[in-house]
Amino acid sequence: MSKCSDYRFGDQCDIECRCKDRQEVCDKRTGQCDSGCEDGWTGLDCQTQCEDYFYGEQCSSRCGHCRDNATCNNTSGECPDGCEPGWQGMTCDQECSDYRFGDQCDIECRCKDRQEVCDKRTGQCDSGCEDGWTGLDCQTPCQDGTYGFNCTGRCGRCQGGQPCDKIGGECQTCAPGFKPPFCQECEDYFYGEQCSSRCGHCRDNATCNNTSGECPDGCEPGWQGMTCDQECSDYRFGDQCDIECRCKDRQEVCDKRTGQCDSGCEDGWTGLDCQTPCQDGTYGFNCTGRCGRCQGGQPCDKIGGECQTCAPGFKPPFCQECEDYFYGEQCSSRCGHCRDNATCNNTSGECPDGCEPGWQGMTCDQECSDYRFGDQCDIECRCKDRQEVCDKRTGQCDSGCEDGWTGLDCQTPCQDGTYGFNCTGRCGRCQGGQPCDKIGGECQTCAPGFKPPFCQECEDYFYGEQCSSRCGHCRDNATCNNTSGECPDGCEPGWQGMTCDQEAVFALGISAPTG
To answer: Which whole number is the average pLDDT over 392-415?
Structure first.
């Protein structure tokens, strides 16, 4: 009998070796292997398959958690239809990692308590499902219209009936009048079933009750009614609409919240709401008037400002001003010498149109200083006698005016052509008709033929009205009379006539006259 070929054994050499070492040639009679049996097989000849639920070397490994309790592959240990829920791995012997469950361990737990490890087969959570999910395995999202823990929350009034967020319950947009994000309540300042009614005027801008519309602390000033939506009636204002307006214009309707009046407060009242009477010492429109000096410090009338009696020196009925011709804080000072007997300013004592001539000072109670006179005492006296003090009102001088000046007050310069004391001097014949000096009478330049400086007389050797005639031949070269032209001592020999301008004619044997 021939020997079996390698890797076969038995009577007919028809049984294949199942050695662990695939290179080993088993015993050709018994099939025994030195390296042991191939995984999944056992027995002396390694021809017996592993029992169900066992696999591997010497069939010593137990199958993992195969689906439907199936036995695994006796060689590899793989489960034919996969693992039981809660298990994973090639041989289904590895439990799902924490926070995962199911056939492939690919489903995430959704427990309320994020630290809880759910059941790795069912996904069930002892703490209940995460908000927004339900079902035994917490993998079913809440139905539309519900949200939150175990889907027990009910969505608010989302815009257009859209579902709210299944976890937190928020709406993307609320129906009009509802408050985001949950749309469960009316927005602030709205109320009613549909949140369509607007709150009235609640105190401190509070929002009203979202069901009834009532204000928690009552109405804003100027409003009334259960929902504070009725304005105060005209001419009334305030928290209860029970305060009467006090406007300057009695036809004006005051601000129904504050009582404020565009026309200002009624005389005798002040404050934003015109409800505060004027303080003592004040009166009138907005209490801007100040009482005068009432007798004994009594307050004046708060509407018109009249005193019952004035303090001494003050003018009734308002006692605001001094009586005429008195001034000062106490009206005890008498006015000075005001022009036209006017009364002075009752505060400062100043005269409205200045002082009477001869007086000066802010209150016109100071006489002009010596040598000055007039309204402002700023005019200098011009008396002939320089030591004389002129009249301090008129400027008149007993000694008459200084040369070159005239008039009652000696302030008028002599007219052209006159000069000297009281302007009684008459100028001579100044060149070109120019006026002479008004004090001394001198001309700057005389007309031809006249003698400077006064130009009153002809120059020597000239005479006549215009001093244009030349003197004749006067004896001893004397000048002639400047009016008539006559020579004072007669003519030079050989000349004759009244003005010595005629040559003498000598008869035979007769001498020429000598005079």
So the answer is: 94
